[in-house]
Write a structure and sequence with these properties.
Blueprint (H helix, E strand, L loop, with lengths): L16 H14 L5 H4 L3 E9 L7 H14 L4 E5 L3 H7 L12 E2 L2 E2 L6 E4 L5 E6 L7 E9 L2 E9 L7 H15 L5 E6 L18 E2 H6 L13 H6 L10 E6 L3 E9 L17 E8 L5
Parallel strand pairs: 1-2, 8-9
Antiparallel strand pairs: 1-13, 2-5, 3-4, 6-7, 7-8, 9-11, 10-11, 12-13
Length: about 290
């Protein structure tokens, strides 16, 4: 069959290089030539960890600020520590919670030993066990997805006593062992030791990237800041310094940290005595790329 058409002899408009590339991309999408995974190459995700303080001191003022930070973070993953029953009761009232999946037991939020994980994608597996501990500490691991990438997410609240470095090092080893078979892993929470403190620092798995160190270099990044926060000062041990207790660690060919920030570091009252928590929160922005090879 011969196709015929009427030829328009008006001058052909010039197409810029940008318009040409955009046209090719749209045509490939229409023909199924580009997969969603390839199209998503370079998109970003946000991770957040926050020790929210189990003590209900200044409850009304603190919760309003905490829930505002969490709800407006638009984070793909949120890990919380010191989640007490009263905190969960209030959290369940938040409208933004419907945007997240989280561990449940008998239809109720499950926060073993105060550990809680929120994920934009469904949670497909939950593991929670006690650690060797003087304070009945545990770990929580969930399997979920971040921008289509299957990931194991662990959170912790390691023992806090200053002289328990050996115990914290042992706890780290156990959690790393639970994550070893995951193709992609995120380990975030309250590690309760600061930079260069031993023996814990030597036990940090070098296969993981610290989001703060990767993007902020030598910036202190104190999330336990006794100079800035009276709440932290009042909760500190004798002679305890300000420290970077909270971390976001990444192990994945698909994740690369491109930003990090301290959250909740502004006082809520005129006297500077009340903060959202005695800890500051920590957020990280991560580029999610296509799998290499």
């Amino acid at each position: 069959m011969t196709n015929t058409c009427r030829v328009n002899h008006r001058p052909t408009p010039r197409v810029s290089r940008h318009q040409y590339i955009l046209l090719i991309v749209l045509l490939l999408f229409a023909q199924g030539g580009i997969t969603h995974a390839e199209a998503d190459k370079g998109e970003t995700a946000k991770f957040l960890t926050y020790n929210v303080l189990a003590d209900p001191v200044h409850k009304e003022m603190r919760l309003a600020a905490l829930f505002k930070i969490l709800g407006e973070s638009d984070a793909d993953l949120i890990a919380l520590q010191e989640v007490a029953p009263w905190f969960l009761d209030e959290l369940k009232k938040e409208a933004w919670l419907k945007n997240y999946h989280y561990p449940q037991s008998e239809g109720e939020p499950f926060a073993p030993r105060g550990l809680f994980i929120l994920s934009r994608s469904p949670v497909t597996k939950i593991t929670a066990e006690y650690l060797p501990s003087r304070q009945q500490r545990a770990y929580l691991i969930v399997e979920t997805k971040v921008k289509g990438v299957k990931v194991s997410v662990a959170t912790c609240h390691l023992d806090s006593f200053l002289d328990q470095g050996e115990l914290r090092a042992r706890q780290l080893g156990i959690i790393y062992g639970k994550l070893k078979d995951a193709e992609s892993a995120v380990f975030l929470g309250d590690f309760n030791f600061g930079d260069m403190e031993e023996p814990e620092t030597s036990k940090l798995d070098k296969g993981y990237t610290d989001a703060w160190e990767e993007t902020k270099g030598d910036d202190a990044g104190f999330t336990w800041n006794i100079e800035a926060s009276k709440m932290a000062l009042e909760g500190s041990f004798p002679n305890e310094p300000s420290r970077r207790l909270d971390r976001i660690l990444l192990r994945s060919e698909r994740f690369k940290a491109i930003g990090a920030e301290v959250l909740g570091d502004k006082a809520l009252d005129e006297d500077g005595n009340v903060f959202p928590s005695d800890h500051f929160g920590l957020g990280a922005t991560v580029r999610v790329g296509a799998k290499e090879g």
